[in-house]
Write a structure and sequence with these properties.
two-stranded antiparallel ribbon
Length: about 500
């Protein structure tokens, strides 16, 4: 009950226990980072105790779930448009994924539904098929992809690979792929936000590279639609200004309802979503013959989108002192994906923005996610929902998507290694940082080059990472400063650079 207390990671404990028992420890476990941490007395629960986090308060969960639904509905419609689909696959996916995720999930906050990266990867996968965008066959292929994503996650959950997806994928590759996807989202939405998407597609070709289309839009401002541009600017101002007022401000609802009212009043707001009948989700007819063509995209969506949602769930669980189970979350996400696809929805994953909103709104359990699904379900039953969609400007949806990815636009520290502390300014540390940055930017370039088949960029990034690992070793192990006759045997297998400073290591090993 008094510090300092020595903590090891789980794999180091396994190696130490094996060595103490006289067994041969694993030779491939990662070097442990060992640290001496001062812990106040009584801060560690006694044996048998468990940290349950905040007490469950159902009323707060209902309020939080309804607040998230106000963002989830317009976001689902916008992300479906990002994938080249109509509003129904996005709405039906949010409805179908809520119940299985709430029943099987591990995180009390994680909001599972349609997300921007999953929508972008879905659109890129479907673009390689000979299908008419917006047709029933196009929507059926998206539903099949959602089922395949769910099946991949179920297989990974069965093999207990949840921790691998959340900790073993190279951070440089994930950061580079995420940044490239953010840029791709913004480039694909330029035409929608300026109201000249159809003109740009006719000028450079519907199958032209997204950078070519974005360049044409920026080079021809005379073709921009003034009304669409005004709707986009007002949407962005509402979302950003609303966040500064309060994290609970329903900026997405205000922007979309305002855009629909402006269209209803006869103002020139540009192209609209189009009136349709929503209704309840029904079993979809899936084109099973497209399975071989969608396998790479299914694996990429299953891995990348799960890793993003898992990051925020793991962070919040750590803040509450709870044990988060990535395998259980992977199982829940897989079942939710199968449900969403069978009911005609898109691929689903944990959404960072809506999860953060749920926690900020006071969610205490997965009742909040169930409430979000029920509110989306009730929206589908509203007779006026289809008429409202007929008035909703596409520019408002474009602005909504752009604001959702803006926080991810800045390159991460891995991609911009310019903040090494003085303690880290060693030759090995600088070489490691520059190598990771090179892998990350190579992933960015490969992903944008492979657009719209963005999943191929992820594969290329992983190949670059493996090649760099082979060609440039990570570091040369330094000899242990403790004499061999006094050093515990298990310390000899630990990379000495992975600990703290040299004096701390010497005293720690001597003790």
């Amino acid at each position: 009950n008094e510090g300092p207390i020595l903590f090891f990671d789980a794999q180091a404990c396994v190696g130490f226990a094996s060595a103490a028992a006289g067994a041969t420890p694993h030779t491939d476990f990662a070097p442990a980072r060992v640290a001496a941490v001062a812990v106040p007395a009584g801060s560690i629960p006694a044996s048998g105790d468990s940290r349950s986090g905040p007490a469950v308060r159902p009323l707060l969960d209902v309020i939080a779930g309804a607040s998230v639904a106000c963002v989830c509905i317009p976001q689902s419609i916008a992300y479906a448009a990002l994938a080249g689909l109509g509003p129904l696959p996005g709405l039906h996916a949010s409805v179908a994924a809520a119940l299985p995720s709430a029943a099987l999930g591990s995180s009390r906050y994680l909001q599972v539904g349609v997300m921007s990266m999953g929508a972008l990867l879905t659109g890129s996968a479907l673009s390689g098929l000979d299908l008419v965008a917006g047709s029933a066959a196009h929507a059926g292929a998206a539903a099949l992809l959602a089922v395949m994503v769910g099946v991949v996650r179920l297989g990974l959950a069965y093999m207990k690979q949840g921790s691998v997806l959340t900790s073993r994928i190279p951070q440089s590759v994930m950061d580079g792929f995420t940044l490239a996807c953010v840029w791709a989202v913004l480039m694909t939405q330029l035409g929608t936000m300026t109201g000249c998407a159809a003109t740009a597609a006719a000028a450079v070709g519907a199958k032209a590279h997204i950078m070519a289309q974005a360049a044409w839009v920026m080079a021809h401002p005379v073709s921009w639609h003034v009304g669409s541009l005004a709707v986009t600017m007002l949407t962005v101002a509402t979302l950003i200004g609303g966040r500064r007022v309060s994290s609970l401000f329903p900026g997405a609802v205000v922007a979309c309802v305002g855009g629909a009212l402006a269209t209803g009043l006869g103002l020139p707001t540009g192209a609209t979503v189009g009136q349709m009948s929503i209704g309840l989700p029904t079993l979809a007819t899936l084109p099973w013959h497209l399975v071989p063509s969608l396998v790479p995209a299914a694996v990429a969506i299953a891995v990348c989108c799960f890793a993003e949602g898992a990051a925020i769930a793991q962070r919040f669980s750590s803040q509450d002192g709870e044990v988060w189970d990535p395998d259980r979350e992977l199982l829940a996400s897989g079942v939710a994906g199968v449900f969403a696809g069978m009911l005609g929805g898109m691929a689903v994953s944990g959404a960072i923005s809506r999860t953060s909103l749920a926690k900020a709104a006071g969610a205490t359990s997965r009742i909040a996610l169930m409430t979000t699904g029920l509110v989306c379900f009730a929206f589908c039953l509203l007779p006026a929902a289809g008429a409202w969609l007929g008035l909703l400007p596409k520019a408002a949806l474009g602005g909504l998507v752009a604001c959702a990815v803006l926080p991810l636009l800045q390159p991460s520290e891995v991609l911009m290694p310019i903040a090494l502390s003085r303690d880290e300014e060693t030759a090995s540390a600088i070489k490691c940082a520059l190598r990771a940055a090179a892998v990350g930017w190579a992933t960015v370039a490969a992903t944008l080059y492979c657009a719209p088949r963005l999943e191929l960029g992820l594969v290329a990034g992983l190949c670059v990472h493996v090649a760099v690992q082979r060609l440039i070793p990570e570091s040369v192990e330094e000899p242990c400063p403790i004499p061999e006759e006094t050093c515990p045997s298990f310390y000899c297998d630990v990379n000495w650079e992975s600990g703290g400073d040299e004096d701390g290591q010497k005293s720690l090993a001597a003790n």
